[in-house]
Amino acid sequence: MTTRKKPAVKKLRITQVHSAIGNQERIKRVLRDGLNLRRIGSSVVLPDNPYTRGMIAKCAHIVEVAPAEE
């Protein structure tokens, strides 16, 4: 019996490039709790899925997105 291989999950590197000061509280909450970004220059690697894309769309003016290198 053969097992199915799971498809490789694409990853995104998300980097905070602007300050969250002066933005709405919900934007700050997405950065802090959803994306786990704390300060300018910090970055995280997250899976590329609709949930992550939605968070990126909320704070697109603050973050920079690039494909993660494996």
Keywords:
70 residues; alpha+beta; three-stranded antiparallel sheet; 3 strands
Topology:
Elements: E1 11-16, H1 25-34, E2 43-47, H2 50-58, E3 63-67
Antiparallel strand pairs: 1-2, 1-3
Find the structural class using helix and strand composition. Answer: alpha+beta
Relative strand content:
15-25%
Task: Note poorly predicted spans.
Answer: none
Number of helices: 2
Shape: elongated
Strand order of the largest sheet: 2-1-3
Main beta-sheet strand count, sense and barrel state: 3 strands, antiparallel
Task: Tell me the total number of β-strands.
Answer: 3
Strand and helix order: EHEHE
Summarize it.
The chain is α+β, with helices and mostly antiparallel strands and 70 residues long. It is built from two helices and three strands; from the N terminus they run E-H-E-H-E.
Give an overview in words:
With 70 residues, this protein is α+β, with helices and mostly antiparallel strands. It is built from two helices and three strands, in the order βαβαβ. It has helices at residues 25-34, 50-58, and strands at residues 11-16, 43-47, 63-67. Strands 2-1-3 form a three-stranded antiparallel sheet, with no helix packed on it. The N and C termini lie far apart (31 Å). The mean pLDDT is 92.
